[in-house]
Prior knowledge:
The complex is a heterodimer. Chain A is an all-alpha fold. Chain A has one domain (70-293): MetI-like fold. Chain A is 77% helix and 1% strand. Chain A has a two-stranded antiparallel ribbon with strand order 1-2. In chain A, strand 1 and strand 2 form a beta hairpin. The longest helix of chain B has 18 residues, at 170-187. By secondary structure, chain B is of the alpha+beta class. In chain B, helix 2 (96-106) crosses helix 3, helix 2 (96-106) packs parallel to helix 4 and helix 3 packs across helix 4. Chain B folds into two domains: 8-227, Rossmann fold; 240-346, CATH 2.40.50.140. The radius of gyration of chain B is 24 Å and the shape is elongated. The A-B interface holds A 188, 190-191, 193-201, 204, 208-209, 212-213, 289, 291-294 and B 54-56, 76-78, 81-83, 85, 87, 89-93, 102-103, 106-107, 134, 136-137, 150, 154.
Amino acid sequence: MTNDSQQKARRSANSDGPMLRAITSIPALGYLLVFMAIPLLLIISYAFLTAGRFGGVKPPVTLENITRLIEPIYRDVLVTSVMTAGAATLLSFAIGFPAALVISRLTPRWQTIALIAVVLPFWTNFLIRTYAWIVLLNSEGLLNHGLALIGLGPVQVLYTRSAVVLGLFYAYLPLMVLPIYASLQRLDPSLLEAARNLGAGGWRRFRTVLLPLTMPGILAGALFVFIPSLGNFVIPELLGGGKSQMIGNLIRDQFLKSRDWPFGSALSLMVLALLMVILWAQARAARRTREWAG
Amino acid sequence: MTERQPLLSIRNLDRSFGDVRAVRSVSFDIGENEFFALLGPSGCGKTTLLRILAGFEQPDAGSVTLDGADLLSIPAERRPVNLMFQSYALFPHMSVERNIAYGLECDKVPKNEIRERVSEVMETVGLTDKRAALPNTLSGGQRQRVALARAIVKRPRLLLLDEPLSALDRKIRAEMQMELRRLQHEVGTTFVVVTHDQDEAMSLADRVAVMDRGEVRQLDQPMELYRRPSSIFVADFIGTSTIIRGRRGDDGLWHAEGLPPLPCADDSENALAIALRPETIRVVGVDDPSAAVRGTVAEVFFQGDHALAEVSVGAQSFLVAIREGALPVRDTSVGLMWDADAAVALLHE
């Protein structure tokens, strides 16, 4: 196509564009309005109201819910949650990166099979998968039987923070593997050969070429694991035995047990603020990697 | 070539991928400070050979020595061999300066020495003002200079260049071609160029190995390759030739089907065909008694400083270069003649 006709085509696309675009974006905008904007506004307004006796909210407007957030007990829950979700994220990276690397080096046929295997657990029910860990980890479970065979144990893993970390890691590992795999696919293999040719050993190639160039995938994977882990309340409850409370459990309890909707909302806003800081940092890092690609 | 021990010595090298024998019993030597080219069509095994020298592939059999020492047992990252990749393979997240310094950092060269050597080599390739630029902001020619600088800054014993000019515009190619030659004299390293482009190989290299289906078909200086191809493949692959299959008669003439006996002074035994370069053939009048064959002008291709005429004589077509005088007209009859010693006998397929 010539430059001129290209411009014409673009103009005509623009002229019938606005109408078409308006119509096609209604479902998406409607979705965002109903499932994001309205709930968000509700949460924000609840956070500044007083708790009703049996749930709900009532006047007067107050800042008390916000100031309660800095009380040590809640701060500790947040720190614990961040540490737990962070540990699950690190573990996912430690296992997920080598896994993605191995998958990316298989033949195309085996890559497909390996990727299906990675997402296969998602086809079974989340609760059943989590219950399975109880069976594996409990004092009569596979882990302790195995340890007993070699004269060790028993160890109490179930109902500890380690079990929560393990459960979160297991639940979200595919979300770490897939984006890393995608960035490895995009990586020009001759870059690693070039590094090797210039004298870089395995560790240096990993540190100076592989890691920085797959960072977008690693960051995306880390977010995909960290965000749902931070707010998760099912796994801490089932595998943590209620002993290791995370921020998700606390928020749920505020709404369903303590019937303190305003404070629950304030806690939610705190988590939201934290996640926005993390997303902002990730967006900055992503912008830098786009500069490399030009 | 001097009598000294060659820098690189390749003996009986073999490498197969499944049923495909990518490299088969290849043997040759490369001398110190030589500019050597591996030339061949894609799939001829030249890239596999290059990857074996760089250490990314291991041969199934054979030996490679560098300065008399076994090269194959040295891991790729410790070989005194650097490679300029066809795609350049510049690290996109590092500045020009850091790309070039990378190899020296790997060798744990002291910081101030790295700075000196990087500045020096950036000056050599004319990149001093691009020190802090990221590779994607550079032009193709500039990227190539970075790739070259990155490879030569380590002062390798052997510099491998994979299709060094193929990604460049025609104009920059000519420039870079001269630059590579200049650089080779300046840094005094042995260069091995791998290419499918005969112009690239012929103009750059001191010696060229022509490869086909995993084998070295002929190894010679560019001019010799052009003047005295030993096989039909080489005569066809390098430059343009008219190749006439047939056999040598007792009358000292070349007998080919559908053609009158042709002049050919080359009396090598068992020749399969003769080759005639276009510039050795002259167009004469159709009635000229000195004409060896008479035919019809099928096509005339104008090439700038000369024209190429395709003349059909029965089923055989002759390619003739015309440098002066009027161009022959299509569909007219002409006579063709050549000196008997211009015809080269080809002994192999």
